[in-house]
Amino acid sequence: MSDLYKLAAFAETEGGGNPAGVWIGDALPDDAEMQRIAAEVGFSETAFIAPASGARRTVRYFSPEVEVPFCGHATIATGAVLGRRDGAGRYELDTLVGIVPINVREQDGDFVASLTSVEPRQRSIDDALINDILATLGWSREQLDDSIPVMAVFAGAWHIVIALRERETLAALDYGFDALKQLLQAGDFVTLQLIWRENESLYHSRNPFPVGGVVEDPATGAAAAALAGYLRAARLVDIPTSIVVRQGEDMGRPSVLHVDIPESGGIVVSGSVRDL
C-alpha cells in the first residue's frame, strides 16, 4: 500500500509555493519506478518515503529527469504530510547526504515544517565557469554585487550563488536552457541561486533548474540553506540571525522561506504548506 500527496511548500498565499509530490509506502519502489512516478507527477521534485510509519524514515528525491541528493521544498511538504498522518513532533529523514531532522507543528488547522540541513560548506569557482554561466544568462560582471562574491555552496546539494546589484536584473531573467544545463551538469551543480539583497535580513531569489528538466524552481529550500551557510562562513551576517528568502514572485508563485542561522551546525529552513 502507498499514498501519493501533492502539496505546495513555502506557500503563505493561495497559488504560491513550490509544488511537490510526496509518496509514502511500506517500502521504496525501485529507482526506475520512482523516476517514472516523478516524471508522471511532473513537479520539480517528488519525495519517496518509507516505511509508512515511525519517527525515522528513508527518503529519496526525484525530479522529472534525475534523482537529486536532497530537496528542501519536498522535505517541507513531507513534514506537513507526516504531521497530518502521525501528528506534530520531530521526525528524522535518512537522506543520501545524511540525517535531516524535521520539526512539525500545527498552525491554523494545518502544519508548518522546519528542516535542519546537514553541515553547509562552500568552495570557489573558476573564472572561466563564471564567465560561461554569465554568458548563458546574458549578464556582465558589472551587474554583480561584489559584496557577495560568486560561490559554490552546499547544504545537501551543490548550488552556485550569484548576487546582483539591481532587482530589475533578477526580474528580467532569461537564459539558454540547454547551455546552462550542460554547464551545471559538468560541475555537478543542481541549480543557480540568483539573488538580490534588499537588506540585511531580506533576500530575493530565482533558481534555474534545467538539470531536473525544470526552467525555474519557485522555492528552493536546499539552496536557501546553502546560501545561509555561505553568509555565515563569509561573515556577511551577524550570527545568530534570521533571514527571509522571497522566491517565485517573478514567475507567479510567490514563496516565503524563513531561515534561521545558528552560530554553528545545520541551517534551519521553515515554511508553510498548502494543498494544491
Any overview of this molecule?
With 276 residues, the chain is of the alpha+beta class. The chain folds into two domains: 2-116, Diaminopimelate Epimerase, Chain A, domain 1 (Roll); 121-271, Diaminopimelate Epimerase, Chain A, domain 1 (Roll). It is built from six helices and 17 strands. It has helices at residues 31-41, 72-86, 127-137, 167-171, 177-187, 221-233; strands spanning 2-9, 18-25, 45-50, 56-62, 67-68, 89-95, 98-107, 110-116, 121-123, 151-154, 158-163, 191-199, 202-209, 214-217, 241-247, 255-261, 268-275. It has an eight-stranded mixed barrel with strand order 1-2-3-4-6-7-8-17. Helix 3 packs antiparallel against helix 5 (177-187). The model has no long low-confidence stretch (mean pLDDT 97).
CATH superfamily of the largest domain: Diaminopimelate Epimerase, Chain A, domain 1
CATH architectural name of the largest domain:
Roll
Task: Tell me roughly what share of residues is in helical segments.
Answer: 10-25%
**Mind summarizing the main beta sheet?**
8 strands, mixed, barrel
Query: Uncertain segments of ≥5 residues (pLDDT<50)?
Result: none
Question: How does the overall form come out from the CA principal axes?
Answer: globular
Q: Indicate the proportion of strand residues.
A: 35-45%
Kindly report the CATH topology of the largest domain. Diaminopimelate Epimerase, Chain A, domain 1
Number of strands: 17
Give Rg in angstroms.
17 Å
Please provide the ordered H/E string of secondary-structure elements: EEHEEEHEEEEHEEHHEEEHEEE
Helix tally? 6
What's the number of domains?
2
Determine the structural class based on helices, strands and strand pairing.
alpha+beta
